[in-house]
Amino acid sequence: MHFRFRHQSLDLMDGKLVKEDVFPCLSRGSDAFRVYLTSSELILQSVKDEQTIERFQLEDLFGCHTLKHAKKANEPGAYLCFYMYPKNKRSGILSSVKSRERTPLVFLVQKPGKSFKENLEFATKWKDETLKHLRSLFPVWLNYKPFKSSSGSVHTTHEEDTVGQNLSDSRNYLTTTPEFSVAISSYHLLQRRYLVILNPKSGQGKSISIYRDKVAPILQEAGIKAELFITERAGHANSFVSTANFHDLHGICTVGGDGLLFEVVNGLRSRPDGSQIAHIPVGVIAGGSGNGLARSLASYTGESSDYLKNPVLSTTLAVARGRVVQVNLTEVDLDEKRLFSFLSAGWGLLADIDVESEILRPIGEPRFTVWSLLRLMKLKTYRAQLSYIPCSHVSEKPVIREPIPETDVGDISARTSIEGDFISIYSSIQSYIGSDLIFAPKATANDGRIHLTFIRSNAGRACATQFLLALDKGTHTNINGVTYVAVKEFSLQSKGGIGGNLVIDGERVSAEKMIVRISPTPLNVFSM
Ligand SMILES: Nc1ncnc2c1ncn2[C@@H]1O[C@H](COP(=O)(O)OP(=O)(O)OP(=O)(O)O)[C@@H](O)[C@H]1O
């Protein structure tokens, strides 16, 4: 589609022209620009030199505000600010890498003979129109009152949209799976409300200042009303979300690590209305030392380099943008108890390193390396029965390069059971289990697979060492003695209790029998 820009024909891509006007741009030396808002872009064309055109995708816009000049109280002009974070090429030796950079665009709205109030109203119309299109790109449903029609099927209802009518395409968002067939009683377009749960002890104990200085300003610019809950102890987030009122809430974000998110997810799913609120998206702002889910999300969406450069900014932008994606979740049955896991379930070597290295926390990340060396010197094995059901739709055959197991029961195309001694059994449902630990390179966001690895005792120390060394490259599944198989369910049991450390999403649990299976209701998360 082409629209005739002043004296020049330009491709409007697939966008429709929404608004057009001329404003001086303070971010471009106060030069006048013709500004075009389309349904997918913000386009700037210099008035002085019409060949000078800048295009910004609305996808890279994270907020829009109207402002008043703090020092010019009598100025009749209002300011219109667009907060863009486009991907620009980095300068220097990494020039081929594109990364998101804050690029505010500030325009002066000052119509001849108009008062400040009138200019502000004019600017506000621009802001509302911009946010309306931005929100419709990334819709988030509100509320969760189940509504049954007389025929018994579940329907989706809407109050009238307050603005705009062209949202029909997005209306079925998140209602495509039966689990999300919940009624929507209202639909806020412009302002969003998030509950932010913060662990002040996570990472290096700086989450409060991280939130205040780096996260809250971006959320505010994005038009998000954030209500902050600071945890006082382990388990506090879980008990809070188990009973909190989520009316009119667009999302729940955590500022911390995977442990905090684990509490939130399990608190939500354990509620009596858990199935009705399962659609509420959760977001994770990487403030902890373990952020496997955030790292995986970045890898799924091609944002790895931004994440590694600045995890807090990258994850805050994902939460502020509000795009919702679904990721794998597993139900973990531990004897009589059920937990939900979004990351990993493991036992033996890797789990021991994760839990036992806790005493070296003050030395930071190197604690894993130090403890790995200690554990390799004193290699332990644990006896249990492992049983799994491979994914039937997985095209690759499971790779089994280990010595013949002591007892193998069953057909690899159905349930397989192995009883004996193991060095490690570890599974993940995301690609990364830590910032630099790529456990399942082939994993995608909602592939319905549990990526299971195990090492039998007779594979020995050399295999265990190679396994640990290969985890940062994701090549551990190629090592002789390491078995990798994509499964839809697995179980682990040992009479008298599963010895050693059994960990779910990095949290220690205990049981005689553990069954891990893909949940029919995936987890909705904010992601770029
Ligand atoms: N206020 C608090 N005081 C102490 N512990 C807390 C508090 N709030 C949450 N926790 C617990 O702290 C643990 C770790 O939290 P979190 O995942 O946010 O940080 P982390 O730095 O990534 O930690 P880890 O590296 O241990 O995973 C969680 O198990 C959580 O239950």
TrEMBL record:
The keyword Transferase applies. Pfam families: DAGK_cat (PF00781), YegS_C (PF19279). The keyword Lipid biosynthesis does not apply. Coiled coil: none annotated. One of its GO terms (biological process) is sphingosine biosynthetic process. GO terms for cellular component: cytoplasm; membrane. Keywords: ATP-binding, Kinase, Nucleotide-binding, Transferase. This is DAGKc domain-containing protein. One of its GO terms (molecular function) is ATP binding. Signal peptide: none annotated. Residues 189-336 form the DAGKc domain. It comes from Allacma fusca.
